[in-house]
Amino acid sequence: MMQRITQQTSKALGQNRRLETVTSAPSVARSASEFSGGSDDPPLSGPQVVTLAYDGLCTFEFGVAAEVFGLARPEMGEGWYRHTTAAIEPGPLRAAGGLTVTVSGGLDLLEQADLIVVPGWRGILMPVPEDLLEALKAAHARGARLMSLCSGIAVLAATGLLDGRRATTHWRYADIIATRHPEIRLDPDVLYIDEGQVLTAAGSAAGIDLCLHVVRRDFGPDAANSVARRLVVPPHREGGQAQFIERPMPREHEARRLAPLLDWLEANLDANVSLADMAARSGMSERSFQRKFRQWTGMAPGEFLLSRRLRHACDLLERNRETSLDDIAMAAGLGTAATMRHHFRTRLATSPAAYRLRFHHGN
């Protein structure tokens, strides 16, 4: 739960399958217009996002950042993100999938960035150029946010800016990062972590979750939901990486038992639901239900229900400034404001009041 436009113009050219990413530092709004296919969009004035490109580029992670922050979204208004790409080294640059990328902008673009995205890295053990490390540290010192997707944590770890902070990465790289950088408080069980000025995402698709979280943080839940709809993904996923690690898919008849229960729980978060109630609704003994539920979701039933209630409480806090904490706690199934504060403190490392102050986007 801890939280979670591209100027890029790309096209295939001939047999070389050359992917050109056209970046214009002087006119980020122009490149956003090119990507949307029109030239009538008003200039953008929102946060400046810079996504790094490097030899050995992780194409998927780069595409996630470009799609969320770089795609022209006129419905969001002129305050939407401006986006550009910065090459950390001379090109052309090789990218996953047999592509070649050319970028006109360099590390100097980081000097104007509000958010810098490290979309993976060419190898979890590969060294990071010193000039990139210095540019990232300088950007951080002047207040820019730094965000890594998947193996991009290797770059942020090398800056030392993650020392003493919570961070995450793909579960495959967790042991390596923990060994090489013991100063980092690594949590490999979550999809992403927001430490304020430094953000990290887990495995590849978790980058979508983190990018949507940033949109939510910057522009509110309605904007995040709008972007999620265009991506055809949920605006928020529950659980952590554990649910994706070597777990067999449930048999079809077992899945049919689970789906109605999950729908019912979602519609009745404020109800007093016991383990016996959930087992009965699934037509199983409590012991079998607990075992099957964990196999299906990677979470114990009680943990799953608590995570959904906390997510609902967060949604209510974001949308309702005047509603009392006691009423929100009751509506979310958390009982009292004191109980809600306890769970926010232990699970989200914040308080309901602080969360509301940070994320509320009222009319």
Please tell me about this protein's structure.
This protein has 14 helices and 11 strands. The protein has helices at residues 28-36, 59-70, 130-141, 153-159, 174-180, 206-219, 221-231, 252-267, 275-282, 286-297, 301-319, 325-331, 337-348, 352-359, and strands spanning 18-20, 48-53, 82-87, 93-95, 99-102, 115-119, 145-149, 166-167, 185-186, 192-194, 198-201. Strands 3-2-6-7-11-10 form a 6-stranded mixed β-sheet, with helices on both faces. Strands 1-5-4 form a 3-stranded mixed β-sheet, with no helix packed on it. Helix 2 packs parallel to helix 6, helix 6 runs antiparallel to helix 7 (221-231) and helix 12 packs across helix 13.
Counted beta strands: 11
How large a portion of the residues is in β-strands, by DSSP E? 5-15%
Assign the CATH superfamily of the largest domain: Class I glutamine amidotransferase (GATase) domain
CATH topology of the largest domain: Rossmann fold
**Residue-averaged pLDDT, rounded?**
82
SS field, number of helical segments: 14
* Spatial shape: globular
What is the spatial order of strands in the main beta sheet?
3-2-6-7-11-10
Query: Number of domains in the coordinates?
Result: 2
**According to CATH, what is the class of the largest domain?**
Alpha Beta
The sequence of SSEs as H and E is EHEHEEEEHEHEHEEEHHHHHHHHH
Biggest beta sheet summary:
6 strands, mixed
Structural class: alpha/beta
**First-last Cα distance:** 25 Å
Radius of gyration: 22 Å
By CATH, the architecture of the largest domain is named 3-Layer(aba) Sandwich
